[in-house]
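Schema walk-through. Below, the input block comes first and the output block second. Nothing else is stored per chain. Lengths vary across the set, and this one has 147 residues.
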Amino acid sequence: MKVSIASDHAGLELKKDAKDVLRAMGHTVIDYGPKTAEPVDYPDYAAKVAASVSTGETERGILICGTGIGMSMAANKFHTIRAALCFNTEMARLSREHNDANVLCLGARTTPKEVCLDIIKAFISTEASKEERHRRRAMKIGTCCTC
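--- output ---
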């Protein structure tokens, strides 16, 4: 799977570890930045990942900032994006199964690193439900990529 990833300055270190986990899982990773810890505006990086998923360049995206809130708000402005801010693996699994989430948002300052890495594994390895009720609900959120 091709996965896009970006962060702001607060999520830079976690992003590096996330890329290692994704590659170890056998996925191709496209890093949209930033490359340094200099302060940046997170909406600019959310837009890069959301656009790559929205256009089909990548299948899923991961966004990391201090809390994950700003990234999720910015990403969800894009057509076909269903970005989910997750704090544990159950949220990640259910966001994929029930909502067909295609972008994962994480808070580097609010969730421990090891938990974040487990969340990424759950998000990437979980498929969207094919049940009609879940597909119907995802369609109501926005255009559903699996329908």
